[in-house]
Amino acid sequence: MEGSDIPEYDLEQRLAQYVQARFDAPAYVRRARQVQEVLDRLLARCRVQRAQWLREGQLGLEELAGLAGSWDDLSSWLPPGTDPEFLPRLAEDCAARVVFGSRAAAGRRLRRAVFRLAEWLESFNRRWDVYLRKLDLQPINELREGYNRYFVLEKECALRSARLARQGFQHLEPLTVADLLQHFPLLPALQGVRS
């Protein structure tokens, strides 16, 4: 079979397939992957920092549990209306090894331990808020903007169909600190606890 017998379109199609196979995924797929990979790295970085700072709360929670016979023994030292699951959830978040004392300690010691926990919570939330606000979100937002601008065009070039190129496309809004707080919220505070 001679080369002149192959239709022009078939040559273009074969060339497009060769280029795709040779150079990984099409541009639109690589662009989407890059946006997701950068977001995943940012979230992983936040997760590691948060876990490190939460570990600092372990000691306070472990001390508090050691002074109490149960979480219920501490309810009178917490502000009115505090969710009964507040301390167990916080202990889980901080990966605290909770071992309760055989009976509740004196009220003064419990009150001081609850006060120290309230101070730690306030300090954690301040640090976490500052940490998130100092993150440079510009690089990821530039990638998102490029995704919004070029993804459909690149997909249309690869698929040769405007209709198919638009299917499944979702516009990405700029990433904000509020978005990060959705993933990694501030801890509930213990307002009104006195030493």
Task: Describe the model.
The chain has 195 residues and is mainly α. The radius of gyration is 27 Å and the shape is rod-shaped. The protein has one domain (25-183). It has helices spanning 8-22, 27-67, 86-93, 107-134, 138-159, 162-166, 177-183. Helix content is 65%, strand content 0%.
Note the run of SSEs as H and E: HHHHHHH
Strand content: under 5%
Low-confidence stretches: none
The pLDDT mean sits at: 87
Overall helicity: 55-70%
Q: Please work out how many helical segments DSSP would assign.
A: 7
The separation of the N and C termini measures 92 Å
Instruction: Please tally the β strands and state the result.
Output: 0
| Main sheet: strands, sense, barrel | none
Radius of gyration: 27 Å
Shape designation: rod-shaped
| Helix-strand makeup class | mainly alpha
Structurally, the number of domains stands at: 1
Which terms summarize this structure?
195 residues; mainly alpha; rod-shaped
What is the secondary structure topology, with strand pairs?
Elements: H1 8-22, H2 27-67, H3 86-93, H4 107-134, H5 138-159, H6 162-166, H7 177-183
Helix pairs in contact: 2-3, 2-4, 2-5
Short description:
This protein is mainly alpha-helical and 195 residues long. 65% of the residues lie in helices and 0% in strands.
